[in-house]
Amino acid sequence: MNLHALRLFHVIAETGSVTRASELLSISQPAISAQIKKLERELDLPLLKAQGRGIALTDGGEKLFAHSKRLFAVEQQIERFIEDYKAGELGHIRLAATYLPAHFLIPTWIAKFKTRYEHTEMTINTTNSTDALNQLLNLEVDLAIYGGLPEAYPESVQAEELFRDELWFVVSPRHRYAGQRVSLHSMVKEPFVMREIGSSTRERFMALCRTYNAPSPRIALQFNGLNETIQAVIAGYGASFVSALVVRDYVERGQLSRVFVENVDLMNSISVCTRKNEPLSPAAHRFIGLIREFPH
């Protein structure tokens, strides 16, 4: 079926006038009439009939008009969808995030984003640093929000640093090192509560010990989540090495205490990672724009 001719018929049926259809479509009346006659021949079905000085729909024309209304209503829906999608109003953002941003940054970012773009769907996978980048590289997600070292990113990953955060040694306020300044060699003799292998912060700690020729720390307790790690130290067991973003409030409330380790001043980089040279969806692009506005 000739959809152009069907559209002409639809406008005629909607306006009740070939003249009005000609004005709306900027097509001459003879050209419209010729297209309608051609459509009637193609369908072997009369669509229009004379009525006084104007025209009316035949019974077949009435039934075809009912179908054309549905067809062109769907067309309008598709056009609105495309406009909204290009504007970032619609879409589906798949996101992998390491535990630090997932728990302490992303909930606020998503709340702000959904307030502006309510109909954009979001899927968030919370995992460790290694797996977050693997999901990005394996095309399982569109973005990865990552906490770690900039030089750790693969060549095929484009990383944009949002901000930097200090890494702190923390213990219970009852610990003998609470608020004290000690050497790294002394600190690593304590039992440590850390995240699982693959955690960026854990890898930073191991690299720090290698850099200063200190013994490897004894990881006495290992958890897959930050909250469990912190709660164990608050309860009085061991020490941890963790982003200040995670524990600053606990320290300010007196539930944890910092240990100031001599010559150690490390920062954590919080970055948004994408696949290099690959365009983002409009929705993902707008989400990144929002977190640039409100990094933390």
TrEMBL record:
It comes from the Bacteria. SUPFAM superfamilies: Periplasmic binding protein-like II (SSF53850), Winged helix' DNA-binding domain (SSF46785). The keyword Phosphoprotein does not apply. Keywords: DNA-binding, Transcription, Transcription regulation. The keyword rRNA-binding does not apply. Belongs to the LysR transcriptional regulatory family. Gene3D superfamilies: 3.40.190.290, Winged helix-like DNA-binding domain superfamily/Winged helix DNA-binding domain (1.10.10.10). Residues 1-58 form the HTH lysR-type domain. This is LysR family transcriptional regulator. It comes from Paenibacillus timonensis.
